[in-house]
From TrEMBL:
InterPro entries: Glyas_Bleomycin-R_OHBP_Dase, Glyas_Fos-R_dOase_dom, VOC_core
Name of protein: VOC family protein
Organism, scientific name: Pseudoalteromonas ruthenica
Span of domain VOC: 9-123
Coiled coil segments of this chain: none
Top-rank taxon, per record: Bacteria
Amino acid sequence: MSNPPLLRGVHHCHIQVHDIEVALAFYRQVMGFDIVPELAFWFEQQHDGPLMLQDQAKSICLALFVGDKKSNGIAFRCDALAFVHWQQHLHDCDIKVTRADHQVSWSLYFRDPSGNVHEITCYEYEAVAELL
């Protein structure tokens, strides 16, 4: 058996949402995502097509689907300073956050408006501990 070819990261994650406008506002205002213009036609022209979003760095894409299914959520990665800033940002956005000390990493858990649980995680354990 041959070795699998090299992967270059995750392209996109599927997220089920109840209300596309509420979800779009959340992912724009809270998470800093925006619509991928060249892929907007999937949502606009297809009955069940996703609304594709990307982060400011254009390194993470989300595919928003309208539906009643639950998604498993996404774990976003950040550095220590950003972790502390995310904690404050989510608090400023009136989003309930649970912080977890995993002994080798720190995580912030929160829900989007459709109830999907997401995570922001940082493996710069000591640096986060000093900043908290």
